[in-house]
Amino acid sequence: MYAPVNGYLTNVNTSPGAYVHVGDQLMALVDSSSFWVAAYFKETQLVSIHPGRTVKMTLMGYHDEPFEGTIESVAWGIFVQDGFGGTSTGLLAAVSQTVDWVRLPQRFPVRIKITGKPPVPLRIGQTVTVAVVTDSPDKSPTDRGQLPLSAK
């Protein structure tokens, strides 16, 4: 068996001698060259979020080993769960708020291309902290978001 891409096999669900039916799913192949980061930033922070901007990222458990990325895109809409728009999220991201009784700023997905070398091989679902690098050296990186690592 040959894979079309380099990567990692996971969830292998077979054993030697087992019969395989056409269309059975035996394992998942994670393409190691397709990782990107999906960050969720508050709408109040979007003024500082632009495609092409550099970000510093750290993996949970590796806070002393940051690596870089570049913002590729910012979503133009999210599914508003308490508003008009039908019952299906469709093609818009559904981002749940963390507190029901307080009106919080909405969070919008931001796609980040990984440009630096992470301290360990990446895994889908890892938690990463993102800090947007500011334009001038006298400012500190204040735009932060918690995000899951995603793959294409």
Please outline the helices and strands.
Elements: E1 7-10, E2 28-31, E3 35-42, E4 54-59, E5 67-74, E6 107-114, E7 127-132, E8 144-151
Describe the protein's architecture and organization:
The protein is mainly beta and 152 residues long. The chain has one domain (34-151): Beta Barrel (Elongation Factor Tu (Ef-tu), domain 3). Helices cover 0% and strands 34% of the residues. It is built from no helices and 8 strands. Strands 3-6-5-4-7-8 form a 6-stranded antiparallel beta barrel. It is globular and about 55 Å long. It starts with 6 loop residues before the first strand and ends with a strand. Mean pLDDT is 80; it is low at 138-142 and 148-152.
